[in-house]
Amino acid sequence: MHFIHARSRHPNPVPLLLIPPFPFTNLSFRHITDIFANPNDPDVDQPFHFVMPSLPGLGFSDPLPNSVHTVSKTAEMLNTLMKQLGYKYYIASNSGSSVTPNGSIDWKIINHLAASYPDSCLGVHLVSPPWKAPEARKNPVEWLKLTVAKSLKAGILGYSKEDIASLRASDREKAKKKGSDMTTIGAFSAYDPNTLTYALCDSPTGLLVFFLTLIRALGSEKEFTATELVTIAKLTWLPGPEGALRLWAENHILAKEEAELKPSHRVKAAITVFLTDDGASQNGPDSTQKTDSLSPFSYVCPNWGKQHYDVVWTGRIQGKQGLLAWERPQIIADGVRSLAKALLAVDKRLYEVERRRRTA
After folding, report:
1. What domain range includes position 67?
2. Tens digit of pLDDT for each residue in 89-108?
3. Whole-angstrom Cα distance, residue 273 to residue 285?
């Protein structure tokens, strides 16, 4: 497994595992390393020992054998990697929205780490986790809370006013664009069998078209140069795209099994979600930032994850998600720093590497 490892030069760093958004490689995000490892003001911004791998079959990471369960095996490899680097305890984060067609792979790997290795992965930062609204049949109490909050248009029963405004706006958009939402269609058409077939069998040009379609569907505001686009496609083509595509295929085949996997105990989590235009600012443990564009995807309410995670911080970001690691990596950094702060307030094990270094 190929990985980027940047040790912070500042005191008291926290080990951080950052998973790049599928199907991109870690080499596409070298530019964000210092944001995490060497912030300008380490007294204000928590520094990290920063580890960012390429998932199996991407970049310079070898694909996994056909006989293994790719998502759980990848999570096992990542946990082993952190231990081999000397990090007995660490936190982990994904770096792109989990409610996009490609983001569910990142989410499943993070969820596996939290569920299977809670003694080493002490907390996770989740970007728009793909949780569903509570259903009356499965969870009548939570369904009733949501129904009352939406009916009263009020920030009550675990929901904020921003949550309710975004949920209602999301419902309106779904109803208005049902069957003709080109953003959603575009997002999924990048993974259409014909698109993938050409990308896999025809030539590297087909794979380049795949990435162009995906970047456009995700609403990226970054102006990619021709060199950047070719490099992105090349890093997938060189190891053989079949490994990455098998990871994507298994992601769909095992969707139900993975959705039912839940942490054995409530691991601490920081949640970043994206509001519609109606969201307003708030202070305290929840924070809101503003951007200029709308999110094309369904709103995910942080309250829906509290039955699975101990949610210690929520960041509500106004605007669309886009390609965070390129366009707004500071949003990811804010989430993991808020998670680290909440963990360190009650658990100093994340400082163990620094303590060992000082006593060596």
Report:
1. 1-360
2. 999 999 887 665 555 788 88
3. 14
Rounded CA separation 234/240 (Å): 10
Domain of 98, CATH number, reads: 3.40.50.1820
Residue range 233-280, pLDDT digits in tens: 888 877 777 777 777 777 666 655 555 556 567 899 999 998 865 444
Each residue's pLDDT tens digit, 305-349: 888 899 999 999 987 777 888 889 999 999 999 999 999 999 889
Neighbours of 223 (CB within 10 A): 6
What is the rounded radius of gyration, in angstroms, for the C-alpha atoms of the chain? 20
Residue 74's nearest CA partner among 124, 12, 17 is 17
Least confident among 72-81, 150-159, 177-186, 267-276: 177-186
**Alpha carbon distance 53, 69 (integer Å):** 18
Strands of 286-290's sheet, edge to edge?
3-6, 48-53, 14-19, 90-94, 121-127, 267-275, 309-318, 286-290
Query: How, if at all, do strands 3-6 and 48-53 pair?
Result: antiparallel
Please report, for residues 53, 93, 116, the alpha-carbon distance to residue 20 in angstroms, rounded to integers and kept in the order given. Answer: 7, 9, 20
Domain count, the chain: 1
Single-letter amino acid code for the residue at 265:
H
Residues 6+ apart with CB under 8 A from 184: 177, 296, 297
The helix (H) or strand (E) run that includes residue 296 is: none
Q: Which of 37, 35, 60 is nearest to 47 (CA)?
A: 37
Residue whose token pair is 């003694």:
119
* 3 state SS of 358: helix
The per-type count for the chain, helices as H runs and strands as E runs, is: 14, 8
Q: Is 144 helix (H, G, I), strand (E, B) or coil?
A: helix
Q: Report how far residue 41's alpha carbon sits from residue 129's, in angstroms, rounded to the nearest whole number.
A: 30
Side chain identity at residue 255, one-letter code: A
Structure tokens belonging to residue 125: 């930062």
Nearest by Cα to 91 from 50, 44, 129, 30: 50
Separation of alpha carbons 8 and 154, rounded Å: 44
Q: What is the pTM of this model?
A: 0.84
